[in-house]
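Before surveying the methods themselves, it helps to consider a single example record, giving the amino acid sequence and backbone structure tokens:
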Amino acid sequence: MDEGMNISLEDYFAIIKEKIGLIILITVVTVFVVGIFSFLIIKPTYQASTTIIVGKPAVTGKESTQYTDVMMYQNLVKTYSEIAKSTLVAQGVYDKLTDKIPVSQIASAITVTPQTGTQLLIITGKGKSPEQAYNITNAASEAFTESAKKVFPTGGDIQVMDKAILPEGPVSPNKKLNLAIAFFLGLMGSIGVVFLMEYLDNTIKTEADIEKYLQLPVLGTIPKML
């Protein structure tokens, strides 16, 4: 029925109104399933960060910091960021932690972000608890400082500018965002399913369908038996 494709906006609303129960059911089930995963199955992840500065932030006496020195320290940040991501630092974190997390897991839990155009380096650690994230971040800061001095003793001066603090809440999963996305996807998906069902349904249900698709007048109807 090719003419079935040419339906008006009123027809769309009529289809939605007719299948509103199915739309609500699919949407509620989608939100419910995502809610179970977000609140019960997916374990929360906590995050802590520390900021490290490379170079000599303060000078005394006749010493002065030249522009070339600043550029050199900024370039050193890139080198130090690679050192902070190394297995050497991850092994150092492992040695400092009381709860022995595998080195590979420690390496994946640490993120190093050099701040472009600055002498700052941000080390972020993630864990399954606030304490674990806090401990990993502090251990990573200490292990990085020690490792950098060993492998690059002629580099810049490394100092911790902002120490890590105990995180107050998890960074993931974002439960409210997940539920909002689930509601939107469930609603849009259910409407799509309803329209697909209507498109695939080629049965004639009403007198109007007979006149529309068969171009025949309706002579009479058989009433429903209650």
Summary: The longest helix spans residues 175-200. Residues 46-162 form a domain with the Alpha-Beta Plaits fold (CATH 3.30.70.1130). Confidence is low (pLDDT under 50) at residues 1-5. The two ends are 32 Å apart (CA to CA).
